Every structure is written in structure tokens, then in C-alpha cells.
Amino acid sequence: xxxxxxxxxxxxxxxxxxxxxxxxxxxxxxxxxxxxxxxxxxxxxxxxxxxxxxxxxxxxxxxxxxxxxxxxxxxxxxxxxxxxxxxxxxxxxxxxxxxxxxxxxxxxxxxxxxxxxxxxxxxxxxxxxxxxxxxxxxxxxxxxxxxxxxxxxxxxxxxxxxxxxxxxxxxxxxxxxxxxxxxxxxxxxxxxxxxxxxxxxxxxxxxxxxxxxxxxxxxxxxxxxxxxxxxxxxxxxxxxxxxxxxxxxxxxxxxxxxxxxxxxxxxxxxxxxxxxxxxxxxxxxxxxxxxxxxxxxxxxxxxxxxxxxxxxxxxxxxxxxx
Amino acid sequence: xxxxxxxxxxxxxxxxxxxxxxxxxxxxxxxxxxxxxxxxxxxxxxxxxxxxxxxxxxxxxxxxxxxxxxxxxxxxxxxxxxxxxxxxxxxxxxxxxxxxxxxxxxxxxxxxxxxxxxxxxxxxxxxxxxxxxxxxxxxxxxxxxxxxxxxxxxxxxxxxxxxxxxxxxxxxxxxxxxxxxxxxxxxxxxxxxxxxxxxxxxxxxxxxxxxxxxxxxxxxxxxxxxxxxxxxxxxxxxxxxxxxxxxxxxxxxxxxxxxxxxxxxxxxxxxxxxxxxxxxxxxxxxxxxxxxxxxxxxxxxxxxxxxxxxxxxxxxxxxxxx
Lengths: 322, 322
Prior knowledge:
The structure is a homodimer. Chain A is of the alpha+beta class. Chain A is built from 10 helices and 13 strands. The first copy, chain A, has 2 domains: 3-136, CATH 3.30.1330.10; 152-311, PurM-like C-terminal domain (Phosphoribosyl-aminoimidazole Synthetase, Chain A, domain 2). Helix content of chain A is 35%, strand content 25%. The first copy, chain A, has a 7-stranded mixed sheet. In chain A, strands 3-6-4-5 form a 4-stranded mixed sheet. Chain A has a two-stranded antiparallel ribbon with strand order 1-2. Chains A and B meet through strand 2, strand 3, helix 2, strand 4 and strand 5 of A and strand 2, strand 3, helix 2, strand 4 and strand 5 of B.
């Protein structure tokens, strides 16, 4: 199968209509009409087989996740997603694989009104690079740099589920999940839900925001560094799903919530005076968030237990070249 | 070396200032301010080691070329380049390699006023995916779809040089080029010059345009398919550089000019009434172009010699999964 048939397979699944797409897949580049006055928000993230997902991952999940991790970055900026481009490297042309991958990507794209407007399909080790483009009114983007001492630290959803799924998967040597809880964790690993609605709800309310891809501690540290502050996290406040509690010992679950990564939840800071408004806006968006700590002046991120004793995380956040 | 140091190495070389970059490398996404009323032009292209460039290519050339092939796509749309994102996969963290790669990319970016505004650095087989973003006034983009029977077919620059360099390199088992001509060909393989100025000059003058990456015949075929026409090319009209003529037999040189690929010249069509204006505009842009054939109603691309006899190309254009 030639490159151009692969593109056709992807194109056929990318029919989400946006009238701001003047020219989509099929020319040298896409032509898009930005909304007047809006700022453009752009990010790109790669998923490589064996590094970012187990080689045995089903192609639907690979396609979904490649877009999801990018929409998660847009969510962390408070941006509304609009368009995406997919660069796909494949060891050989495999129509069924590409169609399934495109199905997964298209399903998430449709949920967020994203049009796949271009890309590249080429030979190489299995890997995907998605570029996502969104829009935000000037001055309303959430960044990593605005956290102030005294702000609350919050996270959306629950942490550690995806990392737990990976632990269980690796322990079980790729045996299919056995329990409903394990299946639910695996769903969170394979089909992360980017918190786009939460990011939109937090415009004008959060002082800083980041998405959790490398683990809470590592990503909160990025916020602290960019903001010139530090943070204290309460171990018992970490939101853990019932599925995670049912599947792993509590200490291991908390370790994964702190440093496991692949959560694609938002970690953000809110001034005390805006906490109620932020919680109301988040509830309206359908995404729950919980206070897990506070911003302090001293640099660094520290974790404390209920007795106020410092805890050391069991391992550092994901380091790509560790 | 951690991922974040790699990003710092790239960031330090990406200081081209554009005041439409509100937030560059270092947050979850870049924040850009499109020019009022302009359309956004977006493309993405991957270069994988061993597929798109020989593994022994110097890193400066890899970085340059990853951006060049994308700026070439923007050129083919008549777009003015503005911003780029780089997703880099590396087998291991190698500071000197990344710095040299970033040097090459930054050098080309500076020539075209492009700001590198974001990216991703991750572990994986060596490969780069660049996304380039440009702008064009509404209605002025060049596409593949406007060629009409009777139009002239033109190409910028000369064809076959890069493919010849690859042939010579492979024949010489990576021995360094011996002659000035061979060195010049190698320069064209490693450091292609995207024809951005030509694309801008052709706004309102070319009826269709494409950049030549997979070989003249394959890419002209794309124009013909998109436009619902065919084309006839005169073998003797193909522009061949003196370096190419000095390095390979004429028949082989012409074969590479027809189907070698990696040229990153523009192939475009112009109505007879606009040919003089197009040539004047191109001369003003500093990029020469030559008429190599004409658009006809019958589908397909055919090549004829000086006697009007049909010629068969020696091989088809580059097929990624052939």
C-alpha cells in the first residue's frame, strides 16, 4: 500500500467539519482561518512505541492517546482546541492498523470539535507526533508562571490510575485485566480524557496551570520553578480512585499518584479569594477538582503526611533520558 | 542529561525575536498572535534516520533539513513562514549532537524570520518532526488544484542534484566528496533551500503549485490529479546544474531530475497571459524558473524528447512504502 492510500484512510476518518478549515488534508499545507483577535495556542508531542506506550497497545488507543496528550497541553493553557496535524511513522504499510489508529484519533477529535487538517505518513519505527492548535482570547491563557505563596494547589480527577495500569500490565506480562477495577485502570492508561472543559472553566480563576504527564511532583515542580515559589502537598489529600485503591496497596497507590505520570489531569493554583468561584466553575464543567496543598515561598515541592511529617516520594517523576 | 537540558540547548539557539510570539518554549504550549485577517498555513513533515537522511549525516544538516522540508511546503502555498515546533526523538541524550542539530535548524530559521516556539524531546529512534506555521492573505494561497489545459509548467532552480548526491554517496560508501561539483551536489542534499521567496512572488500569478519532494513526475502528477488535467514535459527542457552534468552521464542526470526527489524546488503552472509577469516577479525574488512543459486536458504526466517521441522515466518517484 502506498503512502497516499494511508493518507486516504486517515482522511476518510477525519471529516469533522469546521467552517474555519479552508483547505484540509491533501495539499502541501492546510489553510485555516483563525477567529478574529484570538491568540493561537500551539503544541506538539510525540509517542514512540515501547517508550510512551507498550508495543502491544491496540491501535485505537495509540491514535486516541497521541491526540489526547496534545489536547491535554491545550487544556492546561485554557485553550479551546481547533485543529490537529498527525505525523505517523510506520515500519510497514498496514491498512487495518492505520484505519484502527485513525478511528481512535477521530473519535477523540470529534468529542472536542477538532479537525484533523494535515499530516505526514512515512516509513520508520512506529511513532506518532501530533501537533494541536487551539485558540484563546488575548490575556486569558493559563501559564505555569503565576502561582503566588498562599495559593491553593488543586488537581482534577484522580491520580495514579494510568501508572497503576502499567504496573499491573507489566506484572501480568500482558495478560488481559482480570477485574473490573483493573479494566478501568487500563482504560485510563489507554484512553486518557484531556481536561479541556476544566481548562476553559479556569480562565481568569487559576493563577497557574500545568497538565500532569510526568507525574504530579515533577510537573508541580515546573509550576514552582516558573513562578519562583515552592509547594507543600498533603499525602492524604491526593485523590485516588476506588479502582486504584482496590488494585494496589495504599502506599504504592500514593507513590504512583505522586510520581507515576501519564495522568493527563490538570494541576493548578488558585488564590484563596477565588477558590469558591473556581470550584463552582469546575462543577459546571463536569470535572471535579480537589485541594491537595498550598503554594509557599520556599522553593521546591515537599510532601507531608497527616501528622505534618515530611514524606519522601518512592521515586522521581518520569525522566525521558534517566 | 535530562530532557529539560536538551530543551534548554534548543531554546538557547532559538532566540529569533518575533513580537507576535507571546509565549515561546517553556510552557505547555506556545502563545502566538496571528496577524489580523490573515489565514494560517500549517504543515508537518517527519525525517527519520536511515529513511529520509543517511544515518551518517552531520547533525547540522539534519536540523536544517527538518525545517527546510516544511518551509518548502509553506513556500508551495505562497505562505510567509512565521513559527515552527520541533519534536525530536533521540536514542540517548547527546548534548553535542543536539546543539549541532539546533544550530542547523536555527540558522535556516533566522534566514526566514521563523521563531522556534515549542516542541518535544523524547527517547526513541532518531527522528524529527517539524511543524511549520505561516500566514497568507485570504484567497491568495497557491494550491494544487488550479492548473488549466494550456498553462505552462515551470520549475524553479535545477533538478536532480540532491538525488545525484545520494547516488554518489552510496556508490562511494560514504567517502567524502572528491570534486567541487560533488561537494556542491552534497550541499544541495544536506542543506536544501526552501523557495519561500518564489512562492511569495507567485501569489496571484501561478494557477497551481507544489514543492518537489518525491520527484518531479510524482509531484506534478499530484497537481494534475488535483486539477483534473494532465501534463507534458520536455526532457531537454529539464534544468540541470553544471555540477550534475559534470558528475553523471546525461541520461542518468535526467532520470534523477524526473524522479529522484529531495529537490525542494517549486513546480507550478502559469496561464500564458501571466507568464511574463511571473518571470519578472521571480527574477525580482532572486529565484530563476524555467518552462519545462504544458498542461493538457488528458490525464497523466508524459515526457517527450526533442523529436516529440515519448520517453519512459527510468524509475518512478519516491514511494515511502514501495
